[in-house]
Amino acid sequence: MTADAFTGPRPGLRADRARTVVVLLSLWAWCGLLCFPMIGLNEDYVDAPTAFGSGGNVLLGQIAGLALFLTSVALTRPFGLVYSLGRLSLAQAAIIVIIFVSLCLQLQGDEGTAFVGICYTTLLLVAALALSVLWTLEPDDLAHGLTIASVVFCLFGVVALTILGLPENRNVGGIQPNLFAAPLMIAFIFSQFRPGLVSLAIRILCFAMVALVSSRFAVIGCTTALVVHELTFRPLTPWKAAALVLGLFTVILLWPNIASILALDDPNRDVSSGFSGRDEYWYTALAAITDHPFGLGFKRATPAEGGHNGYLKTVVEFGVVGGGMIVFLFATALASAAAEALRSADKILQEHRFACARLAGLVALAFGAFFQPQLLSLGDAFGVSLLFLLFRPRTSPVARRVPAATLHAPAIPG
């Protein structure tokens, strides 16, 4: 028996494990700070979702979580940002370049507003690269980390319902339905990165809570993520085809109940409310684009000018050319993720699961961006998760030097 059997892991391995745990702890704290402060929102926010993050404890939570995560990454993996930047695809790198060039747009207006805009844009760049560092963790570490992050988001929904009670007019206390549902949809997406009973329970709980507040974008987003993941992760077998047919008949049979959950029978919220019901918002955004074709700069548009649509706000902020390119490059990255999910079928199971779960998340978020105030953001679970899933650097498969059990973060059951 060797001496290592008695002395345990070498100091270098213990240090690497400690750095991994620090990064994951800061990620979980950031996830909690993005959603739990919403439990204290007052009624003024119920009918003004675009005002989310404008001040108070919510803004303090956003700042604290972002600062904690960036600090932990800078201290534990100082060269990770440079590594990630060098491993980005052409589409991902082009988005980074466009955001960087958009700093010029911040020079308009008064000095104070310009300074704040420059800070926001710089933080967006750094945060995108810092989140991409998570992909350089050991696969087992990342799987456990995302599962616990999904537990945090799921607990937000449970705690909010426990403290504030069941929804009234779809609002949970002072939390607007889509604000309540967004972290739960992200929990659903993250849970697909790891198999097991815990992940399954998270998906069931989150879908139930999303349906409880009748958040259409989140219900459809969760369903889309599940379908895309299942269709890409496992080949279409006769059993799966039969399940799809059975599911279709179930939808037809239970359509009255589904229509009630989605509030399709509400005359003030019919099936088209997600599109035509936002006409006024969209016209305001189009007017802002006409007035400022080169863009206003990141975080410079008012809530009304953003059109309550992530894609429109991107064009408002980055201009017709810059914003249009970001949207196009986002679609390109989505297509690349789909190709990667299909190619990964011949790789090890965990790599294939990651690729399929990432694709499923990106598809769900791409749909949800039509109904979210912004596509690129640092102040909510939707925006942060999109940055994480979008900026995955290319990685080369390497042989592991030590067993995964030596490095991964504390395991959870399931």
TrEMBL record:
Pfam family, one: Wzy_C
UniProt keyword list: Membrane, Transmembrane, Transmembrane helix
Bilayer topology: Multi-pass membrane protein
All copies of domain O-antigen ligase-related, residue ranges: 204-325
Signal peptide stretch: none
Transmembrane segment boundaries: 21-39, 59-76, 88-108, 114-135, 142-163, 175-193, 205-229, 241-264, 318-339, 359-391
InterPro entries linked: O-antigen_ligase-rel_domated (IPR007016)
Localisation: Membrane
Official protein name in the record: O-antigen ligase-related domain-containing protein
Biological source species: Bradyrhizobium cajani
Lineage: Bacteria, Pseudomonadati, Pseudomonadota, Alphaproteobacteria, Hyphomicrobiales
